[in-house]
Amino acid sequence: MARHETTRPVTFFFLLLPYGISTGFVSITLPFFLTRAGFSVASAAAIVALGVSANVWLFFWGPVVDLTLTPRRWYLLAVMVSAAALFLLGIVPFQQSVIALLTAMVFISQIAVTFVVLPMGALMAYTVPDDAKGRAAGWYQAGNLGGNGIGGGLGVWLGVHFAKELAGATLALAMIAAAFAIFFAADFHVVAGFGFRERMRLMGRDILAMLRSAIPLLTLVLITSPIGAGAMNNLWSAVAPDWHAGPQMVALVTGVLNGIVCALGCLLGGWVADRFGRWWSYFGFGVALAFAAIIMAFAPWTRTAYAIGVLVYAFFVGTSYAAYSAIVVHAIGRGVASTKYAICQSLGNIPVAYMTAFNGWVHDRYGGVWMLNGEALLALVCIVAGLIVLQRINASRVSVSSSIAVLP
Questions:
Q1: pLDDT in tens, 5-16
Q2: Closest among 261, 279, 293 to 379, alpha carbons compared
Q3: Which of 36, 163, 365, 394 is the most buried (most CB within 10 A)?
Q4: Which class is 11-187+203-394 in CATH?
Q5: How far is CA 58 from the centre of its chain?
Q6: For 94, what's the count of Cα atoms within 13 Å in the CB-facing half-sphere?
Q7: Is 6 left (phi over 0), alpha (psi -120 to 50) or beta?
Q8: Is 398 exposed, middle or buried (0-12, 13-18, 19+ CB in 10 A)?
Q9: Contact assessment for residue 376 and residue 290, using Cβ atoms and an 8 Å cutoff
Q10: What is the pTM of this model?
Q11: More confident call, 39 vs 77
């Protein structure tokens, strides 16, 4: 691998803003205007879920990033293409007659923006010291979720006061501006100096080693579960009428304030992961997020409760996402880091997609209370199962270490 320098954790905040802005437009601005254009919550949720599902296919093009251009070049190319895709999505009419075109544009825009994320795995694995990886994960998710709030909230505000076309153009420019942070990050070739056949051999060997290790394998299983998925963040704007929340409140609470609160949660989650351990933060914040949903389900369904509940939920989404990134960065190690990170990201986005669709279906069939409680209960069941498996893995390691210690 070519020589590289250290990348400061805070740099990842700006690097992830373009990704967050694009997904924010799709998950907040889009369902807000779709439901007001006559689409049902379930239909809006299905379109958003399909867009989010683009992240599931990251593992297909993850190797391309490791085996070809440098992370910096891939990042810049991805931001330009995804910004153009967001601009085009802004000019597609939100009408039932063009639902197929709209759905396709959403999916294409989210495919494009996934290439913004892919180089980040290698950057964190190779250029961030081990004792700062938790903070890097926190800043990473702060940029992701903070950008999500900007893309969603600003998108709703501009769409309500001016036009969604202006919203798309403005957010596309914001993505390009944030991308200049890449020049403050290290640049390198992951597998420099090897031929294509040798690169493929190294990649296969590295992935197989990860799959054979107990903790990385457990991590891959857990990130496909609903723990800390925070899928309601994709639907708050669509279900806002249940709490009698108007457009101004939705734009503020799901947008700017949501982004700020999520970012603060991410920073706390990253700090806790470095200070007290990745697993404590991952399971602990997963429980906190589940209880935030349960409390909101049984609180009064008023505009004030909506604002407080959404922001509390957003805070624990931030902590959960930072903890998620911390265990993923630990699991992938180094090697072909972008490829392994792509595999984890693909798996990690599966619960966001299926829980978004699930929540929308439960809402339309059983109501908002069961929507929130159902998400929480599924997460809590998976947390208990995960803790049991982790305890057995640790017990097995202790047993093996003790056996080795008494060998003559």
A1: 788 999 999 999
A2: 293
A3: 36
A4: mainly alpha
A5: 13
A6: 23
A7: beta
A8: exposed
A9: yes
A10: 0.73
A11: 77
Residue type, 55: N
Give the integer Cα–Cα distance in Å for 340 and 233.
27
d(CA 387, CA 279): 9
pLDDT(85) > 50: yes
Sequential DSSP letters for 69-110: S-HHHHHHHHHHHHHHHHHHHHTS---GGGHHHHHHHHHHHH
At position 146, the amino acid (one-letter code) is G
Residue 41 one-letter amino acid: V
Burial of 36 from C-beta contacts in 10 A (0-12 / 13-18 / 19+):
middle
Q: Provide mean pLDDT across the span 38-67.
A: 77
What are the extents of the domains in the chain? 11-187+203-394
| Closest C-alpha to 29, from 160, 176, 145 | 160
Tokens read off for 25: 């437009």
- DSSP annotation of 336 reads S
Instruction: Retrieve residue 268's tokens.
Output: 């706390």
Higher pLDDT, 59 or 80: 80
Residue-wise DSSP of 232-252: GGGTHHHHGGGGT--HHHHHI
Express each pLDDT in 186-211 by its tens digit: 876 655 555 556 656 666 776 777 77
Integer angstrom CA distances of residue 181 from 10, 125, 176: 10, 18, 10
Residue 311 CA to residue 318 CA, distance in Å, equals 10
Query: Residue type at 154?
Result: L
The candidate with the shortest Cα–Cα distance to 341, out of 175, 179, 111, 122, is: 122
Rounded distance between C-alpha atoms, residue 401 and residue 396, angstroms: 9
Assigned token pair, 22: 């694009």
CA distances from 273 to 268, 331, 334 (A): 9, 14, 19
Tracing tokens 């954790």 back to the chain, one arrives at 9
